[in-house]
Amino acid sequence: MTAIKAEVAAARDRVAEAALKLVEPGMVVGLGTGDTARRFVERLAKRATEERLDLVCVATSKQTEDLARAAGLTVRSLLEAPQLDLAVDGADEVAPSLDLIKGGGGAHTREKLVALSAARFVVTVDATKLVQALGDTFPVPIEVLAEAIPLVTRALEALGATARERERDGGPWVTDLGNRIVDANFGRIADPKALAEQLDAIPGVVEHGLFIGMTSLVLVGDLATETVRRLVPRAPESGPQKA
Asked: What is the distance between the alpha carbons of residues 131 and 67, in angstroms, rounded to a whole number?
């Protein structure tokens, strides 16, 4: 992993602190995966200990679950805690519509389940994650059944993507659910909702990293101003608004 610049790290710390203020005693809280999400988990555990908060957490990956348990948080599965009050997670790209690309950490299937199970889905990012259109800087991660990779790759290429199976440590990337990851580069995505529907229809696709219409709030850590902006969705023709 490349070193994170100091100003980016500081911005991620600020949004983690801002998200922490949304947590109330008695909540069921979804915990995301990735560097920004890790910062939130660490702060949440510290606050829960200091204030003796009665919280239940649902993790989006084994990595996050291990971190949360080690820090003293109570972690349950979605089967045990199917309705969440709040989910906090990062993103790889955030469009002006507040639609997202997620899955850089390969956990987007569980991340999507947790986000959709929460009354409020809050996204924490530094300003480098803001894009003019999804696909500008990041491919769409797609979790795929291993034996379906050839079929899915052909289908993705027919949709105009350059598709490549993700690797880790010299071999295929295997998710917590035992599947593989294919990264599909479509370039700038003109209609993310339509593309999401096309990806949903491909046999062998478990889940993709397009998060459309799910976001309740985006907390953005600005690098230059050292502030946190709050963006909430509104009518598409108006774009996101500050809150």
From this structure: 30
pTM across the whole model: 0.93
Please answer whether residues 40 and 149 qualify as being in contact, where contact means their C-beta atoms are separated by less than 8 angstroms.
Answer: no
Half-sphere exposure of 146 toward its Cβ, with a 13 Å CA cutoff?
9
CA distance 94 to 98: 6
In the chain the domains, ranked by start, together with CATH numbers, are 6-130+213-223 (3.40.50.1360), 140-206 (3.30.70.260)
In what side-by-side order are the strands of the sheet with 205-208?
162-165, 180-185, 140-144, 205-208
Low-confidence ranges of the chain (pLDDT < 70): 1-3, 235-243
- Taking only the tens place, the pLDDT of each residue in 55-100 is 999 999 999 999 999 999 999 999 999 999 999 999 999 999 999 9
Distance from chain centroid for Cα 49:
26
Give the catalytic positions in this structure: 111
Distance, CA of 241 to CA of 229 (rounded, Å): 10
Task: Using the structure block, give the residue that is written with the tokens 């219409």.
Answer: 213
